[in-house]
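Ticket #4471: complex job returned nothing on first submit. Input attached below:
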Amino acid sequence: MVNVENGKLVTCDPALKQFLLNLDEKREFGGRRFILKDLDETHLFVTADCDTWLKGRLADLMTENSFPIGEHV
Amino acid sequence: MSVFRELPQIAKHIIIRILFINQQIAKPLIESWVADEHREKFEVAMEIITGLRIWENTNDGIAFNLNNSFRTYLQEALFGGGETWRPAVETLGADKNAKTVEQLDTYTKERWDQILSFLTQEQGKLSEEVISLLKYAGLCDANGEKRFQFLLLDRSSQVWYLLVQYLGYVQKLGLSLVNVLAFVLQLGYCSFGTDYPCDNSNNEISRVIQHFREMGLIFKRKSKEQRFYPTRLAQSISIAGGKKASSEDVQEQFILVETNYRIYAYTDSELHYALISLFAEVQYRFPYMIVAQMSRDSIQQSADYGISAEQILNYLRSSAHPIARKNKHWVPQVVEDNIHLWCKERERLKFNDGLLYHQFLDQEAFEMLKSYAQDIRALVWANDERRFMVVAPWSHDQIKSYYKQIKDGMM
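Support reply: We reran it on our side without changes. The output follows.
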């Protein structure tokens, strides 16, 4: 028997994976889980419809954590 | 010739050896050229050559005869031959209005800048036909992604891009692709600074020449003139690989980048102003000088247009000011790194469409399916230990029927 699931393979670094797991845990994606399978350190299998949303969340995260440099006063 | 290029090493070797022997070659003789331990590779090469009908079997496969037209073309390709262009001096005498190399360069630059400034500000003296070429090439599209990428390419890549599009465009105009392509290739191998005669009665080619005049690939004093000069741009067609040497003498050097991500550009051209403001925020603008600031926001904004870090850096490097060129890094290292990092931020997540197969009962079934998926180039990712594999969506039906087959076989 083999199980088949439709979705998207996500490749990312381990740190980012934890971030995604956390989002999943908190049901931030429309109140439901989006991770179908935790594959390994750097790979996840997710539902096909969450990629744009995830990219947006990542951009927000990066903006929060960045400090403008060389900005003039 | 291109067939020959793609052959395996041994096959090339064999063909070169028999290229100039105009009679049958016995198989044992060819076999004797190859040492026994490489027999396997040799057999493959023999098979390929036979399969491509490069030679014909005679006497029941013990002797070979090279295909006649293949022989003639390859000989011609290797040693020249066929018709070539002779400099105009030989037929028309010296040009009274001969152009120097510098004059040609200035002309080229003027023409090419016309095109670029048309793309940035939608103004510039271009004929209807060239404008419609640019439209055809997708460089005037509203979203601008292609256009921005094009603008940041170095000069010879730009020429190439436009030429490739041009070849598609001439078909739309109803010109013969073969003739135009032959002309373009010939043009690439002309020597720079020499004038060549042209046949104005040939309607097709003179139309092409007219287009190339506008793009600065060809200089022709008047449209009725009997001769033309290929410019440096035209030459860059044939030396696409070694682009650095040819493009730099045409491009100006005016940009200084400081380690605080500030750009000083000594230029008053609208074109460069438009280019720089693609990926940096212009702060001050003086006559002959622009001060601009790069930041995470401005770089990411340009990434939205589809401009990559490498493209920005290429532009900054290729127009680096002579003073900046004295340093080891023409663009400060920290700036380079950060532009890369800023662009990479968005690439931390990579998505691949796929189907996940899991819960395999035994390792054997997993291995079989995996190697099958690999064979049909459908495997996206696999983990052997936990028996996960992800395949491309298009392959699902194929793999399913294969799985059924082996399952039935096992029963």
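Chain A has a mean pLDDT of 84. Closing as resolved unless it happens again.
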